[in-house]
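hey m, so remember when u said the tokens were messed up on ur end? i reran from scratch. heres the input so u can diff it against urs
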Amino acid sequence: MDGITSSEDRMWAAAAHLIAMLAGYLVPVVGNIAGPLVIYFINKDRSKFVAFHALQATFWACLCMVAGLVIGIIGLVLAFTIILLPLAGLLIGVIAIVGLVISIMAAIKAYNGELYEYPIVGKIARDMVGV
């Protein structure tokens, strides 16, 4: 990548992060993954910048969803202890807030033309796209 991205690419990259964040509220489980995945497939051969941001937004949505699901299941399985169920709920809330904040930061960075990497999944997306 030459470091210069078009305004259209920056808009699509930012949209991938925002769609991943917002679509999950409209269509839970599927929306936050399908939205950025569609952007990825539309742009994967056209713009590595957009493909990178869309793919990592997809991975981030999956990671947050799986983490919340695992904590929720553990909380329900161990619900016989009065402390663990509320703690699981609190942790799920923390995951949701952290996921939201990081998605907003990524959208802003993408709109500014930066290759922001999410924690954990950013490098995987970078290697897959080749940026």
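this time it looks ok to me. The chain is about 75% helix and 0% strand. if urs says something different then somethings off w ur setup not the seq
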